[in-house]
Automatic annotation (TrEMBL):
Gene3D superfamilies: P-loop containing nucleotide triphosphate hydrolases. It comes from Xenoophorus captivus. This is RNB domain-containing protein. PANTHER family: DIS3-LIKE EXONUCLEASE 2 (PTHR23355:SF9), RIBONUCLEASE (PTHR23355). Pfam families: AAA_11, OB_HELZ2, RNB. Residues 516-875 form the RNB domain. It comes from the Eukaryota.
Amino acid sequence: MAGLFHDLKLAEGFFTHILIDEASQMLECEALLALSLAGPNTRVALAGDHMQMGPQLFSVDDHRRSDCTLLTRLFHYYQGQKCDAAQKSRIIFSQNYRSTKEIVDFVSTHFYVGKNDVIEASGNVPAPPNDHALRFHHVRGECHLDTLAVILTAVQTRDSLKESNLPGLPLFNDARVLNTAMTRAQSQVTVVGDAAALCCFGKCSRFWQSFINHCISNNSVEPHHYTKGFFEQDVEETARFQRVEDVDESNIICDSVLRELRDEYEQMKTEYSSDEESLDYKVNFTHQRLGKSLKVSNDRENLMELCEKQPEFFKKGKFVKESYDRGYVVPFHKPTKHINIQGKSKMGKAFTGDEVVINTIVKQSVSVVGIIKENQAARQLVCFLEEEDHSKRRPATSGKFVRRVMTPFNKSATKITILLLKDRRNFLPIWEQTSGSWTIKRSCHVNAVRNEVFLVQVIGWKEGCYHPLGKITDVYPKRGPFNDQLWLLKEEFEVKDSTLETYEDLSDKDEYSAKRQNITNAITFTVDPEGAKDLDDAISIRDIGNHYELGIHITDVASYVSPGDELDRSAEERGSTHYLGEEPIHMFPKKLSTHRFSLLPHQDRRAVSLMFKVEKETHRILEDPKLQLSTIRSQMQFTYEQAEDVITQRYREPPTFSTVEDCVTVGYHFAKAQRKLRLGNEWVYYQCDDDRLPGRRKAHQMIEEISVLFNSYAAKYLWDYNHTRYYTPLRCQSSPDSERLETFKEKCGELIPLSFSVQQRVNPEEVTLPNPKSTEHFPILEAVWNDIQSALRENDTDKLVDIVAADDIHPMLQPLIYEFQRCCSKAYFIRSNSSPEARLGHYSLRLNPYTQASSPIRRYIDLVLQRLLHSFICNVGHQYSRTEITDLCHQLDPNAKKAKQLEQKAQQVFYAVSTKQQSAPKLAFVVSADLEEECFKVSFPFNRNIFPLSLSVILRELQLEDQPIFSPEENTLTLKWKKRIYAANEMLIHQELSRMSDRGQRIEIPLTVWTAVIEAVQTENFDQAKSLLMNANPQKPDRVVVPKASSPPPFQHYADILLQLLPGDTIQVQMTSEEKRGSDMPVIQLVHIKPKFEICVQHVHNPISCYTHYANGPTKTHYNDTKQYIQIWKPMCKMESAANAVEDSDSIIIENLEVNFTQQYKEILTGKFFLHEKWIRDWVIECYLDQCLLCIRKRGLKFAIPLQHSALVDPKEFTWVAHGVTTKEEKKKTGIEVEFNISHLPMESIPECVYLKNTLYTVEIIPKLLPDM
């Protein structure tokens, strides 16, 4: 308002009085603007409470932030002056007319006493009827109040406070905020929070103790059992963690510098993250029989003595850390057993591989007592440097060092503290060991190696300290040694290179040779991915008259590898083969996996075989199959693509058995018949992924069903066999929770009949096909419809059925699949007959029982199953106990989960790296749109290997004009933009935008036709389905058509753009990469709203990375000179300037603007564009064009290189994006020429058209609201 008065150019002294209200919350610069309106005779009054909330400043320390308002400074200035004018200019009002007496008395006592200005309650505000004005509700976690009006919510627990920034939590740290909040109330203040957390953290802890004691004394605390004694005990327990670390003399470092590091480290305060776990690892136990107390330490002799004297309580073993707060110990006396340890403090200072002593007195609270022998290899960790939070106050220390934290890539490992010299805090010392002593070999500036990877050696871990102390011994580039792109992933997921790569001691002796049958004369083949060498399954077909014999053969690894030998232990430790790139990390030595064990063509190989007798005409199994040991010889190794072509060419002809190609087709028919028997009407549905695209996956379907069949019979035979009935690892999955399923049916009931995958899962008798209205349509992607037409032309019925029944690729069904998957339970391993859960079977596969036994080269559990199958086939015992199998099953689920996460992340990394060379446009399916989550979620069903979960598009990053509107009745989310969009040519851009469709490339067919197609497919009336689809008469979705006006429309600055989203819609996005924990990960870059309007969410999400860089230096209380001040503050100002400019979203978009780029140096791209004077005038461009941010986009570009993981439905053109900052504006005769530098290129390769003259771009100009300095 004061600025507006200035613009009026009023006469000096125009105002006789100027009143500034709430001056305690005003920045000085804001106050000065109003004061500049005063003349010599103007009376100025600043009104406000200096003890209440003030503005937050970042240029001073936390405790000084609220003291820098003009009101506060004047108040204290007048207090110190003795003249009458000063005393009369300081007027204190001590009556409160707003709040009831109890509130005023409490506030006065705790915020104003001692300052001679006690507040009085003068408003006669009544207290709450039958209640107290001050109430406290103790919650330890989430708040579940229903009807109370909560004035102050302080729901931070003692756990969350360990990770929170206390200066950013004003209710814990700023008394002025508390004063302000409490005095807003009239009759009641209710506080909800964790009492112990409030009283043990932050500067306001004493106030909170008084408040809670006041409420307890007045009996106004909930729950009622929270008495004074309970409160004091709770606070005392939590306060234990606020202690200074003790000195630990057990580790002596010879080097003087490292000794000083250790001494400084012992003086630093500890940060804790758990309120329930003490980090004092010295344990006292009272041995009842000896009648004395025994104190336990980490002394080896004492630990060994404990184990000898009390073996029932104290045990030795090897420690394995599974996560930061979970691990287990393998006891030496029983190496097949795992003793679980839960809690960080219970694991003590142990690292994986340490030999430890554990206390098992309380079985539910097993803990590590001490370490007998350290595993030094585990104390050398690959880490990244954790960024400092400069908003946190540094711990006070008078020593020579400051602390930094190194975070291991291995998520189960503890963080490590390193210490840096205070006067060289920006330099990281790199240590080396020579002649038994450590010296600094070099130092690296933090900025130079900020994004590198460090090798850190742990040098000690003292009692009571949360993190160990370490030193950096090496620095690696992110690609790692030997240019291995995946080495960081291996480090993160603890994948070690095998030590048995040169294993040569494997014997060819076959103890089961007498029982092994030779079937090398049968036509046998394998089908695997291209380039595969570890071939573990094969199929044989043999014509025997009226029927044929089909064999499923699994390579007999168990006949080579004995339980407990070196090869077996190595395989068990690895758990599975990892497929991370072109070269797998094999579970067994590579030579064994790809040669001796592999079912290579024209080589005799041992196998465990399941032999079926099958009727030729119906492919029905005639009798129970026989499980046997065999010798086989494969005639042909097919790739999936080769087998697909063979099946597609031959499957419509009567089966023959003459050639291996004939037998591949027979195998397909057999698998298809078994799938129908297993799944009923659901047999037509297969889930999509990157390798199995609808219409081109007959070979995949064959091999998948063959493997499932082998596994199910293996489980059945072992379940029924006496020797293995209680020893078989089973793969189980329970059915969905009934309540979740009912909720799902209420939410998605209308779509269930349209789904092949879900329809049969939710009481099929309840499901009836809908009677749709004639106006309703079913959307199909144009590329998918083209595939359907192709299948019709080729008369490829199985391809047609596969595409029609692929729910994943139909947009309308995506929300249904998404919600149903959320209902489903996770599969798990469990020992057979060990509990009721072991008898549930596998819900998704519809099999009971079920196991995994078809891949012994690649999965250790399959090798164990194969040994049990040997026991069944040869009728002999096996070497496993029930406990061993139970423990193995417990290991399998987390190991399998980790292996799956590793392979998925590896694919994501490779995909993200590829987007650096070529941005990747994709078609996304909207699966949910809900305001509560402040986002809408999209999935990519054609790329489930890369995107197994849905991605969120955050609504605030779309820069909407107004709040989104959600309609529960129509389940739609309406998004609205109001953007300044102009065109540098004659195109009427606003009219163009209104005409464009935002539905993407799809067609619609009547829903009546589609439901009829579903019914025809389910009844296998495929001719009827074909006829319906050939006569479907597909239509393009209606486009918004704006009638052409007879005269040009009036000029408009703003374009109103609407987008209605509902689950099942499609939307085009473009992917790029973003670094997360040292790895490139795929993220959404562009969201295309219209063909000529998109939002760059990349620069909205991370404006600092796109337009500047992060500030590295912390602020100081005192600066040596202005140069140092600018050096520290200029990067921060640039960050704030960029963030504020983007957040304001007041950008100007110019279409078809000519931009000329120049490559100045190898890594520097500059450019310029020209704005005509008429444009500047007509478009009202009033910003400083030399202080703007730019997002420059070029649409419609063809791919320069083949795009990896591009699906059939994905767009065939991409948009090139560059982010820049303007540097100069030069006025010419006809306009202004603007020069700029490119600050960020998401694509490393630059398209050739960028360097061509007269190339037109979309340029988004983002004016800066604040100068850089």
